[in-house]
Amino acid sequence: MAVRKNQATLTAKEKRDFVNAVLELKRAGGYDDFVSTHDSFIKSDSDDGPRTAHHAPSFLPWHRRFLLQFEQALQGVNPDVTLPYWDWTADRTPTASLWGSDFLGGDGRRSDGQVTTGAFAFSGGKWPLKVSPDNRTFLRRAMGRGVAELPTRAEVNSVLALPDYDAAPWNGSSEGFRNNLEGWRGVNLHNRVHVWVGGLMLTGMSPNDPVFWLHHCFVDKLWAEWQSRHPGQGYLPADSTDNVVALGDAMKPWNDTTPADMLDHTGHYTYDTGF
Amino acid sequence: MSESSRGSDLTRRRMLQGAAVALTAAAGTALIGLTGPTDRPAAAAGLAGSDEFDEVYQGRRIQGRPVTDGAAAGHHHGGGYAVLIDGRPLHMMRNSDGTWISVVNHYQTFTTPRGLARAAVNELQGATLV
């Protein structure tokens, strides 16, 4: 069984294997399909229309399925690789080892936001952006400038304490765990992390920054944690509801996976620890 | 300096309700059908005082206008509004609480389309929307 680990605990070889698998997927052409898929859902998901991947109850199962597909693509390159997660309540500064030149590279430079260290720096020639909101082709970050602080452990615990998975009107104005985790309401967890990293992570093409996967892996872990703390609660809505994906509805773009299929991750992978 | 004093064209013509005109973007890349204030009451109320703008911000021309749903730009669903940066459309949408997000600033919300457009200009740092 694959074990997803905290990135802070990875060995040098594990970091190298992950980075090299990502680079190979990019070189072979598969990586940018993930960027395009994410962007197409960003552009079509809205509070008052059909919504699947964002502003919606299926935010969590959709991204779980999306991450599984990505992890399987990496494993096609190197079967030893699993997605690491970034616990941003613990590793909260631009000097964390996550951003080292042996892993994801560091913050963007002041002049133009360009990441200049690590394997994803434009100068290395292996990470040209193909799907971008504008005509720049280099990875950008601007850590801590859009918002000063990453979410704290206490804030995460306050969201994990919410008993209901989601609530009508099933969008960005909902009460409940999902929307407080996604971040359109409340202390703002997931959205805030995108803004804290800045650059491409601010955009609909956020998977251009490999930290997208480590961030969403932690979000996925928090969903699993919420499930373990609220065993009597389940995915909502259970029944067919306009514009959103109910428990037994197939999710686009796969059309073969429902939220119900994604509730138990342990058939696919486990996490190294609880939160 | 007020928000509007930088504007290069501060006319706030009210289009006749129901009349549609076409705004041809500078490079001819976008055709967006324009009407007067949107017929959706909530949206109209939220846009009061900021429903149109045309200004130069950080050297970039930013324009914002209400549009009919299903206008030529196609993907401007939900908001009834379009923003151009140097003539190119910024993909944007309106949230149920009246705030705005764009493809450039997707994970943070802005209270007005003008604020959204200025934030996109700040992020673009001179780059061109594609």
Automatic annotation (TrEMBL), chain A:
Belongs to the tyrosinase family. PROSITE patterns: TYROSINASE_1, TYROSINASE_2. Residues 54-71, 209-220 form the Tyrosinase copper-binding domain. PANTHER family: TYROSINASE FAMILY MEMBER, TYROSINASE-LIKE PROTEIN TYR-1-RELATED. InterPro entries: Di-copper_centre_dom_sf, Tyrosinase/Hemocyanin, Tyrosinase_Cu-bd. It comes from the Bacteria. This is Tyrosinase family protein. Its cofactor is Cu(2+). It holds the Pfam family Tyrosinase. Keywords: Copper, Metal-binding, Oxidoreductase. It comes from Kitasatospora kazusensis.
Automatic annotation (TrEMBL), chain B:
Pfam families: MelC1. The keyword Coiled coil does not apply. It comes from the Bacteria. PROSITE patterns: TAT. InterPro entries: GriE/MELC1_sf, MelC1, TAT_signal. Keywords: Copper. Belongs to the melC1 family. This is Tyrosinase cofactor. The lineage of its organism: Bacteria, Bacillati, Actinomycetota, Actinomycetes, Kitasatosporales.
